[in-house]
Write a structure and sequence with these properties.
single chain; alpha+beta; 6-stranded antiparallel β-sheet; 6 strands; 31% helix; globular
């Protein structure tokens, strides 16, 4: 029988840049909230920003990591999780975290829409000396997942259902 207990977490969550390209599974449990923007540095920066607390599973080459009540402030993730909270909606969100260029910036600097296009534009910017007015700016998106990734998430959810169901544990 597998122990259904986990060790307490020290609250160490990964930085978003560390998750780029990872398959993420979100299970939202409550709507987003507005919080003070602790990164505001200029007068035009918003004083409050939206964030959502979501149970997050990060799938990597060596398995998966679970993060309970992880805060996300990227609008695409907030929107997807808010949709999952609606009555009758699918309760999970699955996607590959990707960095892409902002639309206005892509048009101004003439580069494409994909995460590879953004990476190339950013590397070119660095090679040219990194002038601030020419810096490619980005947003985070949840890219599409393939069938193999979807199966990985389904297998994870099936296993968690067994582990979290005490009657399933007792019958093993």
């Amino acid at each position: 029988m597998t122990d259904p207990f986990s060790q307490p977490s020290g609250g160490a969550y990964p930085k978003i840049d560390e998750l780029e390209g990872c398959l993420l599974l979100f299970k939202p449990d409550k709507p987003s909230e507005m919080v003070p923007n602790r990164f505001a540095k200029r007068p035009e920066d918003p004083t409050h920003v939206a964030r959502i607390s979501v149970d997050t599973v990060v799938f990597g080459p060596d398995g998966h990591e679970e993060y309970s009540s992880m805060y996300w402030s990227q609008q695409v993730i907030i929107n997807a999780c808010e949709q999952a909270l609606k009555p009758g909606a699918k309760p999970f969100v699955l996607g590959v975290l990707q960095k892409v260029g902002q639309k206005e910036n892509r048009e101004k600097l003439k580069y494409g829409e994909t995460s590879d296009d953004f990476r190339t534009a950013y590397e070119t910017w660095l090679k040219k000396g990194g002038k601030p007015n020419e810096q490619p700016r980005h947003v985070w998106i949840l890219g599409k997942f393939d069938d193999e990734q979807a199966q990985l998430a389904r297998d994870y959810l099936a296993e968690m259902q067994k582990v979290r169901d005490p009657f399933a544990i007792a019958s093993e």
